[in-house]
């Protein structure tokens, strides 16, 4: 979209006259588009009566210290002075050209430079700190860092603290003055991996440290160029200019070149173990664990189930009615236990972005009652397709066209209750062919038969033993506007459907194969096993499920034909 001249500076720490004199003199020569300040802008005693720090703050607020380039800041390790907090209650500007971007957040410049910021230091515990954190406090939660994954990409990432393991596999020594504070935190490393920023700046007031550029891990199924990140921790304002200041031009259309780079230093942190014993009613297609429902050595002895015992049947005592979002004549839409996305993976949605479409018909009944008439199957498929399209339209509308969907069905002889799962996904990944490629790559790895294209709105001729996917992307903005002007209520978008047969000769088919693909695409590999996503307390888990289902109902209300 454009080229921006960017200046990044380290902690100003209340030395406003000295710092902005340096910045203003450089601005006169370079004409920067913007300046980004990391770390503490205000000093330790900036709000105290008397003293040079207090005098400089008064001068800044009174306008006697001028700032000639738009300068953006978040919070560092110290609380903001009371006078500054009072000012920010009514304005984002402390003074002209000194702009508060929030404790955490995302913004895009007029040149199209996308910037994500996370200020403060990690709280010791999310649950203890969450109720007490104010919008200006120098503290953040792990959930704050995870929420920023929803930005999906960044040209520049600003954090007060370092990411964990950033010094790993680097040949550049960390200065002795900052070695004690260079451990970093894992959730910032995860944020870097999620956003893959071109530049990541942090703060170390005692000295600066810049490591070699490093390659980001390839996105699952990526066919594009590997992304490179540069990391620098800036020294404070009292350091030499070359350590405190970093100036560069950023062309949003062309990532900066890096002939010499290392592999990514990060060791991606997995979710803490939270497993419970697997409920027996989850051993079917929804089960995210095991290979075909078997777990480790203990599972070599095959279990035998009553085919009428099914957690997806409304009439069963174990049915979780709180998950249901809509009920039609032939099928229903539900939230699910152990959704793949986190609650904040898709901030545009009020739920996780993962739902199921479940037919009322219990598949195992066909064994007892004989083969179903084709007319009955077609009627069921037609309603499930209406639900799929309604969910597509909901996701596209709520995200303003940014998200598409991946819908999957694993149909195996012996599964007690067939169902479809639908997961939100970045529309750009689907359009670029990355999602389709990811399914094909993993299928080839597992030595499955090749995918075949099929009509997305028709039942397959093959009744059983297949894996089917539907890839949907919304229309572009111009087409959606035209549809709206013509009074069209829904966005058909573009749908592609593929299936692969699962022959009886195949030694093993992993029922969680589609979830494994989507986990890779969303960089949530540690959530491939649905059991690892459950909370250890059953009551808390049920509350989380209820919140997800309520969010789904809320988002789906305007699109739910079954409620008309």
Describe the structure.
By secondary structure, the protein is of the alpha/beta class. The protein folds into two domains: 3-251, Metallo-dependent phosphatases (Purple Acid Phosphatase, chain A, domain 2, 4-Layer Sandwich), CATH 3.60.21.10; 303-563, no CATH class. 25% of the residues lie in helices and 20% in strands. It is built from 14 helices and 23 strands. The strands form four sheets. It has an eight-stranded antiparallel β-sheet, with helices on both faces.
Tally of separate helices: 14
Secondary structure category: alpha/beta
Secondary structure: number of strands: 23
What is the percentage of strand-forming residues? 15-25%
Low-confidence region ranges: 45-51, 269-311, 313-317
Query: Taking all residues together, what is the mean pLDDT?
Result: 83
Shape: elongated
**Roughly how much helix do the residues carry, as a percent range?**
25-40%
Radius of gyration: 27 Å
**Strand numbers in spatial order across the main sheet:** 16-17-18-20-19-22-23-21
Number of separate domains: 2
Biggest beta-sheet profile: 8 strands, antiparallel
Q: N-to-C terminal Cα separation, in Å?
A: 44 Å
Characteristics:
single chain; 564 residues; alpha/beta; Purple Acid Phosphatase, chain A, domain 2; 8-stranded antiparallel sheet; 14 helices; 20% strand
């Amino acid at each position: 979209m454009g080229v921006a001249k960017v200046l990044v500076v380290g902690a100003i720490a209340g030395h406003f006259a000295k710092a902005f004199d340096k910045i203003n003199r450089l601005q006169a020569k370079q004409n920067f588009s913007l300046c980004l300040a990391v770390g503490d802008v205000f000093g330790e005693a900036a709000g105290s009566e008397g003293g040079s720090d207090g005098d400089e703050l008064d001068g800044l607020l009174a306008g006697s210290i001028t700032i000639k380039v738009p300068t953006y800041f978040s919070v560092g390790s110290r609380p903001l002075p009371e006078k500054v907090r009072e000012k920010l209650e009514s304005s984002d500007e402390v003074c002209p050209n000194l702009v508060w971007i929030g404790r955490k957040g995302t913004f895009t410049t007029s040149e199209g430079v996308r910037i994500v910021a996370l200020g403060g230091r990690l709280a010791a515990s999310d649950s203890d700190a969450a109720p007490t954190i104010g919008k200006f406090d120098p503290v953040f939660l792990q959930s704050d860092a995870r929420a920023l994954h929803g930005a999906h990409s960044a040209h520049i990432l600003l954090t007060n603290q370092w990411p964990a393991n950033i010094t790993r596999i680097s040949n550049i020594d960390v200065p002795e003055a900052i070695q004690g504070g260079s451990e970093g935190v894992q959730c910032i490393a995860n944020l870097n991996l999620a956003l893959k920023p071109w530049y990541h700046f942090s703060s170390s007031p005692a000295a600066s440290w810049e490591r070699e550029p490093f390659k980001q891990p390839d996105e699952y199924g990526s066919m594009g160029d590997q992304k490179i990140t540069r990391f620098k921790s800036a020294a404070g304002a009292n350091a030499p200019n070359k350590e405190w200041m970093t100036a560069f031009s950023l062309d949003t259309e062309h990532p900066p070149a890096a002939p010499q780079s290392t592999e990514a230093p990060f060791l991606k942190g997995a979710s803490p173990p939270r497993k419970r014993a697997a409920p027996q009613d989850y051993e079917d297609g929804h089960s995210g664990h095991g290979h075909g429902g078997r777990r480790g050595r203990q599972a070599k002895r095959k279990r035998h189930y009553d085919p009428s015992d099914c957690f997806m049947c409304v009439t069963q005592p174990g049915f979780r009615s709180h998950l249901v979002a809509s009920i039609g004549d032939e099928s229903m839409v539900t939230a699910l236990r152990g959704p793949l996305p986190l609650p904040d993976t898709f901030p545009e949605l009020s739920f996780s972005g993962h739902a199921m479409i479940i037919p009322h018909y219990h598949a195992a009944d066909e064994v007892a009652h004989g083969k179903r008439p084709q007319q009955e199957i077609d009627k069921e498929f037609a309603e499930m397709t209406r639900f799929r399209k309604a969910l597509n339209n909901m996701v596209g509308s709520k995200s303003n066209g940014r998200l598409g969907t991946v819908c999957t069905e694993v149909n195996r002889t012996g599964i007690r209750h067939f169902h479809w799962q639908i997961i939100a996904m970045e529309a750009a990944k689907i359009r670029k062919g990355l999602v389709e490629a990811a399914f094909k790559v993993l299928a080839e790895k597992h030595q499955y038969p090749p995918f075949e294209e099929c009509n997305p709105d028709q039942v397959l001729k093959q009744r059983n033993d297949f894996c089917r996917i539907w890839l949907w992307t919304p229309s572009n903005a111009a087409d959606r506007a035209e549809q709206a002007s013509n009074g069209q209520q829904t966005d058909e978008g573009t749908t592609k459907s593929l299936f692969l047969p699962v022959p009886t000769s195949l030694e093993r088919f992993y029922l969680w194969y589609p979830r494994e693909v989507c986990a890779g695409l969303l960089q949530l590999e540690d959530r491939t096993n649905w059991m690892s996503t459950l909370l250890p307390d059953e009551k808390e888990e049920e509350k989380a499920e209820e919140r997800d289902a309520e969010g789904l109902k809320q988002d789906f209300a305007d699109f739910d034909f079954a409620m008309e």
